[in-house]
Write a structure and sequence with these properties.
18% of the residues lie in helices and 35% in strands. It is an alpha+beta fold and 334 residues long. A hairpin with a 5-residue loop joins strand 11 and strand 12.
Length: 334
């Protein structure tokens, strides 16, 4: 049904910048009847907005809703709205990037900002660092040194290597932003001694025993720490590098996670031994279920590869939470 309603759509990326993309828009009545179908609308900076005219208004259509289908971003829902004759309604939507349409643009080792000072030191101590794919080690740096080897993996490298490096940078940011409430606010990443292994969804590291003490304190006194929750640890045993140590008892493991509903950080520690020497290992990951994504961005049909959230999706979430975050990489069109 034709009307004189006007809807102005404003589309921005997670940093609040107008997108540049070809976009399809479909508008439906409350009874799911299609009232507008535009398949190729060009959104461009500096405005990133378009006016859709001729839409039904109250009382002909009490409620409308819709979908936005971009080319290089996740499709999102247009939440229910009403139009009044002679008035313009503006709806602003945030569109996260669709990982398959973008590639990582990593900041070079020498250009990493001062906030990466601990990160640099940790990587220079991480000999034998492994970047792993779904089933096997993709690459092992037996004599890894960050200042020499960090830039070997760039945005055009093998996909598994790129995703592992992106995941490491995501986890570094999250573990630096969140702090240990039992130790005068020490950033969790400060406890990392060396990184053993990185995958697209987690980091395995040797850490200072203080991390285990802090996690234990929080776990045993969870009611005193509103920003953390207890969570299961046993299912993380399969992630531990059992080939590098003589013993990593499952019963030694304990796990907590930060309590924010989107992109929470999970810290799982285990105790290991090798040649009578004791170690504390950490399995750190950011919410891998992917359920947060549809809630935060109203994403339509968000699908996950191998049931793991894509590191680029986590990149978008972290920037949505803090647009000034310096993650150590950006995303550029393929």
């Amino acid at each position: 049904m034709q009307g004189d309603g006007i809807l102005e759509l404003v589309l921005t990326d997670v940093r609040g910048q107008p997108i540049e993309d070809r976009v399809g828009v479909r508008i439906f009545r409350g009874d799911s009847r299609l009232v507008l179908d535009r398949g190729d609308i060009q959104f461009k900076p500096p405005h990133g907005a378009v006016r859709l005219k001729g839409l039904p208004t109250v009382p002909d259509a009490l409620e409308l809703h819709g979908r936005v289908t971009p080319t290089r971003y996740h499709g999102v829902r247009i939440p229910p709205f009403r139009l009044v004759s002679g008035q313009k309604k503006q709806i602003a939507l945030v569109l996260p990037r669709e990982p398959r349409k973008w590639k990582a643009d990593f900041t070079g080792w020498k250009s990493l900002p001062p906030s990466f000072a601990t990160f640099r030191k940790v990587l220079d101590r991480s000999q034998g660092l492994r970047l792993k794919g779904p089933e096997r080690a993709v690459v092992t740096f037996k004599d890894f040194k960050g200042s020499r080897d960090y830039d070997v993996v760039d945005g055009d490298s093998q996909a598994a290597r790129v995703l592992a490096k992106a995941a490491l940078l995501n986890i570094h940011h999250k573990m630096s932003a969140l702090r240990d409430p039992t130790a005068n606010g020490t950033p969790w990443f400060q406890y990392v001694r060396r990184i053993i292994e990185v995958r697209r969804d987690r980091m395995i590291a040797e850490v200072d025993p203080q991390l285990a003490d802090s996690v234990l304190t929080i776990h045993e006194n969870i009611g005193q720490f509103a920003t953390y929750e207890r969570t299961h640890a046993a299912n993380h045993h399969v992630n531990m590098p059992i080939d590098l140590f003589e013993a990593i008892p499952e019963e030694s493991m304990l796990s907590i996670k930060s309590s924010e509903s989107e992109g929470n950080l999970q810290l799982t520690f285990a105790r290991a031994t090798l040649k009578n020497e004791k170690f504390v290992l950490l399995d750190a990951d950011i919410d891998e279920k992917g359920t947060f994504f549809g809630h935060v961005f109203e994403v339509v049909n968000h699908t996950l590869t191998g049931s793991k959230t894509h590191p680029f999706d986590v990149h978008e979430l972290l920037l949505q939470q803090n647009i000034r975050a310096k993650l150590g990489y950006g995303l550029v069109p393929r």
